[in-house]
Write a structure and sequence with these properties.
The complex is a heterodimer. By secondary structure, chain A is an alpha/beta fold. Chain A contains 15 helices and 16 strands. Chain A has 2 domains: 19-135, Rossmann fold; 143-378. Classes of the chains: A alpha/beta, B mainly beta. At the A-B interface, helix 6, helix 8 and helix 10 of A face strand 7 and strand 9 of B.
Chain lengths: 393, 92
Amino acid sequence: MKTLYGYRRPDGKVGFRNWTLVMPAVACVNHIAALIAKDIPGAVAVHHEVGCAQIGADYRQSLRTLLNTGLNPNVGAVLLVGLGCERVDPRELAEEIAASGKKVEFIVTQELGGTNATIEAGRKIVTDMSEQLAKIHPEEVPLSSIVLGVECGASDFSSSLSSNPVVGYVADTICANGGRAVLSETTEVIGTEEILTKRCASPETATKLVDRIKRMVEYSRSEDRDDIEGVAVPNNISPGNVRGGLTTIEEKSLGAISKGGYFCPIVGVVEYAELIGDRPGLWFMDSPGYDPECTTGLMACGSTLVLFTTGLGTPLGNPVTPIIKVTGNRVTAVRMRDDIDIDVSAVLEDGVSLESEAAVMLDTLIDVANGKQTRSEALGYRDFGITRIGPRL
Amino acid sequence: MKRGLIMNKLDNVATVLDDVAAGETVTIRGLPSIVEISTLEEIPRGHKIALVDIPVGMDVVKYGFPIGYALTDILKGSYVHVHNVGSKRTEE
């Protein structure tokens, strides 16, 4: 196996990118944050739609997502940009992220006097932060330092027959070596309760998982169905899934859960974007299946790398955590080659074994961890979306 | 040769890996012996074919687990999809 290198942060956690993150405290200053980070090597800005006009569970969830994005070990330093009147307090957020030992600063647009003054102040800070971070050299780290998020999107028949099981073997390998993997997409485990609860390390974890699935089933039943070519399809599979050959949520789920491996125990269940614990094994994050929101949640809960399987092909990326896209569909591998990192179509087309594709995938995962750009990183994708619970004010 | 794949010996459907026309033979691997099935209708690549007759109400099984139930009598060699399969989890 190849040697793995990572950035060890002051709190002991290991990251595989070394970003200076520019984070708006509220959507009103998204453009300012983008202009602050623009063209500064090692700097990246997050673009989001929250920070104000939310209450209760939604507000707490948004705040948690922003905080835990700052805490992700792929981030080395953070500049928070506030407007001055928003509900999220950039000062408090800065203090909470700084408790991890990272360098964190904040600036407020209304205090500095407008866009240009804020950009000027911000760029000075971010340039300095990036220069400091560039002096840190990655060190050799064990495989157990990986937190691997697994996700699927634009799935078709090939996902369950090839790419998902190959990713599952890699997830099992990481967990068996003392690392952690995170499975999510509550929608896409509906119908697999019997299989997953048997893998739960404790009855409490099993109960929590089943409760979350029940909640998602009730929600998906509560609205009218879409009609595709005269047939009412379930709310929890997409039109593309149906065209790709998936018939029911049970079928989609049975294929989807193989991403989470086959034998590593499920050691805990967390809320959307809640930090997972230290215990090695498979974690489950309660989330929708919607790709930009799910990958944002996976990153915020601590994933430092994500393996993302796709049958039909999707261009998705993330500002903080590399998203490595995998397809098992040869037509997609060719047609969507701009967006695909790993092609495992030899499983279905040439009879190559899942195990040998998994060995190649683990090597590619390590290459990406060691700095090789993913397709979406090279193309500049910065998808960031926070899921919603209730109405927005 | 038109190809199909079965995932588990308990399955009563298989996935076809090529577009198939009505009346064509699909060669299905995944079991100790290779099964050949003649299709009753056109089935797109990646979609499912019935390996046996599946009476109305009976489980449709893939990966060794029910993925839904037959909404109508499904004949061996038929196209199996949203028009003749219902979900137990979303339609109770």
